[in-house]
Amino acid sequence: MSKTTVFITGATGFVAQNTIVELLSRGYSVVGSVRSEEKGEMLKTYFGDNFQYVVVAGFENKGAFDVALKQHPEVTVFLHTASPVSFGTEDLERDVLIPAIEGTRNALQSVHEHAPQVKRVVVTSSAVTLSNFSDVSDPKFKANEDLWYGVTYEEGSKNPSIAYTASKVFAEKAAWEFVETNKPNFSLSTILPPYVFGPQAQDESAKGQLNISAEFVAAVYRLSKIDKVPEVFGPFVDVRDVAKAHVIAFENDEAKGKRIITYSGRFHSQTILNIIRDNFADLRDKLPVGIPSNGDVSESVAWDDQKSKKILGFEFIDIEKTVIDTVNQLIRANK
Ligand code: NAP
User: Fold this and answer.
1) Bigger pLDDT: 58 or 319?
2) What residue range is the signal peptide (predicted)?
3) What is the whole-number distance in angstroms between the Cα of residue 81 and the centre of ligand 1?
């Protein structure tokens, strides 16, 4: 018998599926929200009897989670991971900002009104809430848990390159404001990952196009000898550590009311390329050489995230293991 039932929104996602694996391995039961029955049935085949799903379509509508929570009075922990992770859309407000912000507000309102037994809520925010993109990518940037990017809603609604960032800033702010205003029965924690790398929860999901951040590693793996190495760099974390952080955020009382950064270190596309070339003899000759010294990120400034590291209390997976495990999965999945 499981000790606790955890509700997780956006159960199909890269982060969510890895979090479900972590939850089930620790003996929790899980109820996941999905956007269609078909997606729910697919997840059931992956996760088995301790996983149930509920279909919640249109979480930007008020009361979207009411029915699901009424159906599952056993839920005492709520993890909100669902959010549009998209950049190329026609209507930034409709497709990115509103679902992220209203989706968060509606989820918390439903928990407050219909699940008073829920004592812990964790919202997946992002390291992009800490400052603008060039700061967060800069090797000299020293992030800490108190920073907020001062983007405006208007900037987010007009500029495709800022819309996602603004959606995360205003969604996380909406969550903290909700708690401040409504004084619900639950405590809130937020998780702030930078680029999330690492394996998909199932090899099956590693076929074809992956989600945006997982694609960074896959894109380097797919390069051919004559390709230019992409100029992508910044902070990263392994998805398995993000999953663990979501669990510790509701298990550890020290996490109540805290923003928790999950930062492993920095990468450059060339770092990823060097690791693949050094560890996969069969891929070495198919890949470009690039400029190996560009992969050295050892001069980067460490983030000032000790408060988060103390709450989490585990060693983060490094870039080498992230890349090796990811590439091994890509090889298995694409056989
Ligand atoms: P993902 O694989 O694209 O998953 C996104 C999830 O959100 C999916 O379950 C998706 O459902 C759901 N979703 C998207 N738009 C929705 C909408 N309008 N209504 C309802 N559900 C919607 O992305 P991910 O990387 O796992 O992201 C999970 C969370 O982590 C997000 O909050 C994201 O902002 C945050 N995050 C991610 C990264 C990263 O590098 N990946 C970094 C920092 C923070 P469908 O499957 O039905 O589309």
Assistant:
1) 319
2) none
3) 6
The model carries a pTM of 0.98
Domain count, the chain: 2
**Tokens read off for 320:** 């080498």
Q: pLDDT-based confidence at 237, cuts 50/70/90?
A: very high
Mean pLDDT of the residues in the chain:
96
Q: Which of 60, 61, 83, 86 to mutate to test the pocket of ligand 1 (most atoms within 8 A of CB)?
A: 83
Q: What is the mean pLDDT of residues 68-75?
A: 98
Q: What is the pLDDT of residue 1?
A: 45
Q: pLDDT tens digit string along 286-315?
A: 999 999 999 999 989 999 999 999 999 999
Asked whether residue 308 is assigned to any structural domain, the reply reads: no
Identify whether residues 191 and 82 lie together within a single domain: yes
Whether residue 313 lies inside any domain: the answer is: no
Q: Which of 15, 39, 169 most suits a substitution to test ligand 1, by most atoms within 8 Å of the C-beta? A: 15
